[in-house]
């Protein structure tokens, strides 16, 4: 490789950061079995014969809603996913994909309508020509629509 050639590199930002197991809290996020999860239950056992209190974590995958569990010594570090939420105005729908606009006016058309009750609610609002926004949660290179917000119509 010559001096004039450059290799592309990422931003250097990690998708996770370490946090001590005892510092995690219910309704926070943690990586369980390699998946980003929301903590729904946490119990801590007493210090045992070998000197470590254990934390039993139960989490729900934020994208698939699968349940995961893990046990970790309270003094050890666990990975916490960097999560980001962003609101988008829903413009329309085409073949199962939503057309969304952010605050800066950028349009994206790459997010599929979610499965289940949330998807049915979005379809109903589209059918009624309601104005509404969706919140998109991003973590670990994945994105999903997680909530709906009604917007006030301007008269």
TrEMBL record:
Single Gene Ontology MF annotation: RNA binding
SUPFAM superfamilies, A to Z: Nucleic acid-binding proteins, Translation proteins SH3-like domain
Signal peptide: none
Span of domain Translation initiation factor 5A C-terminal: 82-149
Places the protein is found: Cytoplasm; Endoplasmic reticulum membrane
SMART domains for the chain: eIF-5a (SM01376)
Principal cellular location given in the protein's record: cytoplasm
Annotated membrane topology: Peripheral membrane protein
GO cellular component: endoplasmic reticulum membrane
Xref: InterPro entries: IF5A-like, IF5A-like_N, IF5A_C, NA-bd_OB-fold, Rib_uL2_dom2, Trans_elong_IF5A_hypusine_site, Translation_prot_SH3-like_sf
Post-translational modification: eIF-5A seems to be the only eukaryotic protein to have a hypusine residue which is a post-translational modification of a lysine by the addition of a butylamino group.
Biological process (GO), any one: positive regulation of translational elongation
Keywords (A to Z) from UniProt: Cytoplasm, Elongation factor, Hypusine, Protein biosynthesis, RNA-binding
Pfam family, one: eIF-5a
Annotated PANTHER family: TRANSLATION INITIATION FACTOR 5A FAMILY MEMBER
Family: Belongs to the eIF-5A family.
Job of this protein: Translation factor that promotes translation elongation and termination, particularly upon ribosome stalling at specific amino acid sequence contexts. Binds between the exit (E) and peptidyl (P) site of the ribosome and promotes rescue of stalled ribosome: specifically required for efficient translation of polyproline-containing peptides as well as other motifs that stall the ribosome. Acts as ribosome quality control (RQC) cofactor by joining the RQC complex to facilitate peptidyl transfer during CAT tailing step.
Protein name: Eukaryotic translation initiation factor 5A
Gene name linked to the record: LOC101065275
């Amino acid at each position: 490789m010559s001096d004039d050639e450059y290799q592309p590199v990422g931003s250097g930002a990690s998708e996770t950061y370490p946090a001590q197991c005892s510092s995690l809290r219910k309704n926070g996020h943690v990586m369980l079995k390699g998946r980003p999860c929301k903590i729904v239950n946490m119990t801590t056992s007493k210090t045992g014969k070998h000197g470590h209190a254990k934390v039993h974590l139960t989490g729900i995958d934020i994208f698939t809603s699968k349940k995961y569990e893990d046990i970790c010594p309270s003094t050890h570090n666990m990975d916490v996913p960097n999560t980001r939420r962003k609101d988008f105005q829903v413009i329309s729908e085409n073949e199962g994909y939503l057309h969304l606009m952010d605050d800066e006016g950028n349009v994206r058309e790459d997010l599929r309508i979610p499965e289940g009750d949330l998807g049915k609610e979005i379809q109903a609002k589209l059918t009624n020509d309601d104005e509404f926004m969706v919140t998109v949660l991003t973590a670990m290179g994945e994105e999903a629509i997680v909530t709906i917000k009604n917007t006030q119509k301007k008269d």
